[in-house]
Amino acid sequence: MKECLLSEAVLDVVAIGNAIVDVISQENDAFIASRALTKGGMQLIDAQQAEALYADMASGLEISGGSAANTLAGMAALGGKCGFIGQVADDQLGRIFAHDIRALGIRYETEVASDGPPTARCLIMVTPDAQRTMNTFLGASQFLPAAALDLDMIRSARILYLEGYLWDPEQPRAAMRDAIAAAREAGREVAFTLSDAFVIERHREDFISLIDGGMIDILFSNETEICSLAQTQDCENAIARFADKLPTLIVTRSEKGAIAIQNGTRYEVAAAPVERVIDTTGAGDLFAAGFLTGHVRGQDPTTCLTLGAIAAAEVISHYGARPEADLKELAGALLA
Amino acid sequence: MKECLLSEAVLDVVAIGNAIVDVISQENDAFIASRALTKGGMQLIDAQQAEALYADMASGLEISGGSAANTLAGMAALGGKCGFIGQVADDQLGRIFAHDIRALGIRYETEVASDGPPTARCLIMVTPDAQRTMNTFLGASQFLPAAALDLDMIRSARILYLEGYLWDPEQPRAAMRDAIAAAREAGREVAFTLSDAFVIERHREDFISLIDGGMIDILFSNETEICSLAQTQDCENAIARFADKLPTLIVTRSEKGAIAIQNGTRYEVAAAPVERVIDTTGAGDLFAAGFLTGHVRGQDPTTCLTLGAIAAAEVISHYGARPEADLKELAGALLA
Asked: Which residues of chain B make contact with A93, given a CB cutoff of 8 A?
């Protein structure tokens, strides 16, 4: 086992992601259609677009978000030791983000941006079918400099977890490349989430070269994303294209459950039951939280998938992408 | 009818209250006890106390609040035409508050404070029994100047609604006295909510002199508050003390329902059923919203009380003090 040669891991996971506050409102389908938004997707917007869209939105609620940060929130709730890297500005939303992530017991020491745009926010419209449409103003997040990385913290964590969304802006992309190099040099695992079909459109070559180059140990995707990456309509073809390049490939399938292909073997679980789906924001993030929690505890792939399904089911039963109920209790014997 | 002599009312209600963003977290009873907070009550805190308490709080969610503003949110959801007066600072929380209240269709034109403290916030701990403990940093709210009042708007509304919480700081108290004078001069009704037993402790004489002086047409209170005002343990004695000084006296009684005494006649309704009580924040505010909605539509006191009970039941079934479900639909035929 290569782990024997390494210094003991201090943290379970260090994640690099958007440091973002979600602004959530309930809207109808006409609102989404009339503004030519892509329902269920994420689009990047600039400060001016953010202001115009916010002016049109219904009264909302604010809750700390960010895909990778949501995953850490889930892992921390399940007992994991986590660290987060992401940049906020010196403003009220930045203080809210920092407070919330630290209050979850997550190490967060990235320096606050001294100038530049305000803290990132994601304007999320939730339609009556519980689908979310996300509009992200990246703000301070998009200027995360490579110099802000705590490489010692990255080396000290069993897994480095990277958010595909943050591959768009140049500085964080460079920082994530440095982080991958540091993690691999220290013999750590690298997990990556594909995040969104539009992000894949923009960075397909990068993502494929990371996978084919053996830089990624665990890839999280949903059906749309893995198909987009492989440029096929057929999910099985897409899986076949990448499965032997990845020690672990996860494909989440919404209400149809999830699949893991690990070292050539396929594992599958059904979705966990949900009384009423309210807001699907964070489903993938929390699935990753459950799966990684099992993974760092050395549990079998089916248990890891089941933990993912349980965490995802909790987060879609209420507004916001961070868990409200006691995930440890929901996981019960699976964590014993 | 005196209304015949007046110019037609343009708005149903204008309210003066705290312009505040709620920060809500789930805490256990030990958290409340160890910080010597009064469970179920509201205490005022300064900037330093707010910072220290926030640092200790769990990860939370932010949602626009303020007692009177919550009442307007409920009235607007029930189809009422409303205006709000309250002061925010030029910061992110201030912009969130202003956005949210305007997005509800409420007229809100109070000028933003050009200097002084940041926008008010209320740190709310919700315990597993659904009780809320509120800690308010009044910020920019407490410096609402009388000059900020839109007296024409006040004169144009059928009802002026005042939040007792805002009687504490000197400037808004003076502004509210001016507003009462303007409303009465224009022949409008004045409604007042007692807000909190501790506020009453500090301002009992003021409140009693307003009531005995015939300045208040509709008084909202709960059992604790009306007893505190009358300095008695016996709720019936307290009601008897004030009933003939007030055209309408409302006493809400949590799960026991609510009472109205109107021109000497007593009306009573049961509480509306709630599947599961999550967070009682805003129960009184939304009760007032339902009651006033019926009142401005000229409905009988029992219908007004029932509308209050329905709106209160909705808001205690989720986190936050503003309605999430469609109140019009819940009210159904009562609004027809």
From this structure: 92
Instruction: Verify whether the Cβ–Cβ distance B59 to A322 is below 8 Å.
Output: yes
Q: What are B205-262's pLDDT values in tens digits?
A: 999 999 999 999 999 999 999 999 999 999 999 999 999 999 999 999 999 999 999 9
> Band of the pLDDT at B4, cuts 50, 70, 90?
very low
**Type of residue at A259:** I
Cβ contact (<8 Å) for A62 and B61?
Answer: yes
Q: What pLDDT score does A9 carry?
A: 77
Nearest to B199 by CA among B168, B222, B226: B168
C-alpha angle B162-B9-B148 in degrees, rounded to nearest 5:
45
Which pLDDT score is estimated for A6? Answer: 54
Q: Are A320 and B61 inside 8 Å of each other by CB?
A: yes
Given a cut of 50, the residues of chain A with pLDDT beneath it are 1-5
A109: helix, coil or strand? coil
* CATH topology for the B2-18+68-116+140-335 domain: UDP-N-acetylmuramoyl-L-alanine:D-glutamate ligase (3.40.1190)
Short-list A21, A28, A2, CA closest to A184: A2
For residue A97, give the 3-state DSSP assignment.
Answer: helix
Question: In B, which residues are within 8 Å of A101 by CB distance?
Answer: 59
User: Hey, are the CB atoms on B324 and A26 less than 8 Å from each other?
Assistant: yes
Query: pLDDT of A71-81, one tens digit each?
Result: 999 999 999 99
Interface residue B94 vs chain A (CB under 8 A): no
The tokens of A180 are what? 């991958």
Say if the Cβ atoms of B59 and A99 lie within 8 Å.
yes
- Which residue of A lies nearest to B61 if distances are taken between CA atoms? A63
What are the residues whose beta carbons fall under 8 Å from the beta carbon of A123, sequence distance 6 or more? A23, A25, A45, A50, A53, A54, A57, A134, A135, A136, A137
Please state, in angstroms and as integers, the Cα–Cα distance from residue B180 to each residue in A102, B88, B168, B212, following that order: 46, 22, 16, 15
Tens digits of residue pLDDT in B162-178: 999 999 999 999 999 99
Distance from CA of B129 to the nearest CA of A (A): 15
Contact between A330 and A310 under an 8 Å Cβ cutoff? The reply is yes
Burial tier of A108 (Cβ tally within 10 Å: 0-12, 13-18, 19+): buried
- In eight-state DSSP terms, residue B185 is H
Spatial distance between the Cα atoms of B199 and B221, rounded to a whole number of angstroms? 12
Comparing CA positions, the residue from A80, A13, A59, A10 lying closest to residue A323 is A80
A125 close contact with B: CB closer than 8 A: no
Q: Which CATH superfamily is domain A2-18+67-117+138-335 in?
A: Ribokinase (3.40.1190.20)
Position A101: which residue type?
I
The Cα–Cα gap between A216 and A218 comes to 6
The residue of A20, A91, A92 whose CB has the most chain B CBs within 10 angstroms, and thus the best one to mutate to test that interface, is: A92
Q: Is A140 left (phi over 0), alpha (psi -120 to 50) or beta?
A: alpha
Q: Are strands A258-262 and A265-269 parallel, antiparallel or unpaired?
A: antiparallel
A292-309 burial code (b ≥16 CB/10 A, e <16) = bbbbbbebebebbbbbbb
Is A98 in CB contact (< 8 Å) with chain B?
no
Cα–Cα distance measured from residue B194 to residue B174, given in angstroms and rounded to the nearest whole number: 17
Residue B13, CA distances (Å) to B135, B173, B324 in order: 27, 19, 21
CA distance A186 to A312: 31
Q: Say whether B100 and A59 touch across the interface (CB within 8 A).
A: yes
Rounded Cα gap, residues B310 and A172, in angstroms: 50
* ipTM above 0.95 for this complex: no
